[in-house]
Amino acid sequence: MNKEDILRMAREADREWDCDRDMVEWLERFAALVAAAEREACAQILDGVDSYANPMTANDCADAIRARGQA
User: What is the DSSP letter of 69?
Assistant: First the structure.
């Protein structure tokens, strides 16, 4: 994720503000932390998948990850 991605997402979220350099840097760090936390949460879903104990399919895993956004 880069600065342009962050600014585009902020605009999509209907935020109207002028970003100074410090704000952009803060947003980049914040976005990186959020993305890392989400990747870890998704990885934990997959860590629980074992073909013998928990026969989740790839679609089941995708559904579980998507369901995170509904909580």
Answer: G
